[in-house]
Amino acid sequence: MIYERRASPLHAARAAVASAWCVVLAGVSLSFEHPLVLLALLAAVIAAAAGARVADRVLLALAFTLPFAVVISLINPIVMREGLTVIARFGTVPVLGELDVTAEATAYGGVLALRALVVIGCFALHSAAVDPDDLLRAFRRVSFRSALTAALATRMVPVLARDARRLHDAQRCLAGAPAPRRAVVRAVAAGALDRAVDVAATLEVRGYGAARRAPRGGGRPWSRHDLAFAASAVGLSLIGAAAYAGDWEAFEAYPTFSAPVDARLLGLSAVLALCALLPFADRRGVGR
Amino acid sequence: MRRAALLIVLALAAGGCGLGAGESQEGAATLTVTRDFGTREVGTGSADPIPGGETVMRMLQRDFDVETRYGGGFVQQINGIAGGREDGRPVDWFYYVNGILAEDGAAAHKLAAGDDVWWDHHDWGASADVRAVVGAYPEPFLSGIGGKRLPVRLDCADAAADACDEVAERLAEAGVKAGRSAAAGFGGEGVLRIKVGVWADVRRDPAVRRLEEGPRASGVYARPSAAGDELALLDAEGQPVRTLAAGAGLVAATKLSGEAPTWIVTGTDAVGLAAAAAQLEEDALQDNFAIAVEDGRPVALPVEPPPEAP
């Protein structure tokens, strides 16, 4: 997934703020277990992707994540020994021992899968809507070498992907059976090493190793989008912390699955989604 | 193809596979939760009939607030009482089924009719290996191990005929029919033995003689002297609190790896042996790891340490 500037509030916000907003949204989803809250957060992520005009990319990422989510939901009931309601018995299985699948472990597997979808949706949105160069520039102040390494890595991945595509195209032009995938990977990896040596030599010649931190200040002033997404991130964090401290979601996975839905939980889900989506309402100044 | 599928389905069914929890079992299972070697009760529970697929863990979770570790296989906390360290001593939850320390996880141990499940939270610094206890009497003699009733054999010492008769009578009252062996036979996986005799006689059995090495070897918090004329009563840390001499008795259980438990009804002399035999009853043994008999009265083992001087 490659970043592309689009006319949206999230793209208009500075990279550090947009990145923090995505990370906070993912973090909030990790602090909740109730399926209704997770569904609300998933809906918020998809709506945010639509607001950022990257819905197609985020939905594609979620579609790719679905098999992974299914695997999570299948593994949990196999490895977890919790839950009172046995729905299937597999007798004694080597390594696992006595294997009883319970309804509670199965349901909680679904919760974990849903949570994985939300987290991956957040990071897909991050990849599609946060400018990596801006983000690395922001982090350059914190650690120059780390930022440089990350910048090179993020730039090398698309380069290697293009190499692989070119090799694949060249293969298709040849007669006979296509070369095995392993050969393509080997060729791309060899190319990557060559490039890495070249890049290292160039950086050394240019004296990058002696560079110091970038100077502070001189950046652009905070825009309304910066402020809106920062406020949203703070709001999401506070709601998440308050809900966790106050035990607002009465959710129990074991020994019996209990996920009651009451007005407070509906309100919590709505407030979380609203808090995440409000910054997208202001579309002034989002042009390219 | 159909035949192969049918064979697979039949094989799975024969291996205990199927949908749902399975059929309920006729008969009851009981649950006791205590702490400090059975001295303080936390709660009780029961299942009658036993739900299909019921395990020790599920039975516990139905009646108690349980916190687990390692994917639900290990009990860390029951009703807020957690394993870990208390006053610098290691403590944890252990469970016994019919008086025998389970060798598998609670989540994997299926219940059988008649099972007496006992969870106890105790200090394991002196012995992490208390493999058999007497507190589930008349189990394991009545229901056996894993739903399979085992033969019971009284190994009576030559001079212990009266005590042996008393033990046999008490077992019969509890519904247990025991065979009798005059010789000091060895144990095994398939037989529950009760050794009856004064210590000097029963100590010939290697499983029984381990009591002289202390709780780390035997799991019993009492240490008879090799001569058999003294019985040291130990506290939870394995330290001797007091020593009994003439007229002292002991009812305890121990277990060698790979064998069924061996019970010991013994005394420092004939008087102590008779007193111990007289204590083979549910009221005296209930929820005790083992008992000593002092002046004809049962003393729970391990004993409370003496109060500190002011």
Description:
The complex is a heterodimer of chains A (288) and B (310). With 288 residues, chain A is mostly helical. Chain A folds into two domains: 187 residues, no CATH class; 68 residues, no CATH class. Helix content of chain A is 66%, strand content 5%. Chain A has ten helices and two strands; from the N terminus they run ααααββαααααα. Chain A has a two-stranded antiparallel sheet with strand order 1-2. The longest helix of chain A has 30 residues. The relative contact order of chain A is 0.19. In chain B, 19% of the residues lie in helices and 33% in strands. Chain B contains eight helices and 20 strands. In chain B, 45% of the residues are buried. The interface between A and B is medium-sized, with 19 and 26 residues.
Notable traits:
heterodimer, A: about 290 residues, mainly alpha, 2 domains, two-stranded antiparallel ribbon, 10 helices, about 65% helix, about 5% strand, B: about 300 residues, alpha+beta, Ferric Hydroxamate Uptake Protein, Chain A, domain 1, Chitobiase, domain 2, seven-stranded mixed beta sheet, about 35% strand, globular
Order of helices and strands of chain A: HHHHEEHHHHHH
Give unreliable regions of chain A as ranges.
none
Across the major sheet of chain B, the strand order is: 12-11-13-18-17-19-20
- Count of the domains of chain A: 2
User: What coarse outline of chain B follows from CA principal-axis ratios?
Assistant: globular
Overall radius of gyration of chain B: 21 Å
Query: With helices defined by DSSP (H or I, 4 residues minimum), what is the helix count of chain A?
Result: 10
Helix content of chain B: 10-25%
User: How many beta-strand elements of chain A?
Assistant: 2
* Total number of distinct structural domains of chain B: 2
Mean pLDDT of chain A: 86
Cα distance spanning the termini of chain A = 20 Å
Shape category of chain A: globular
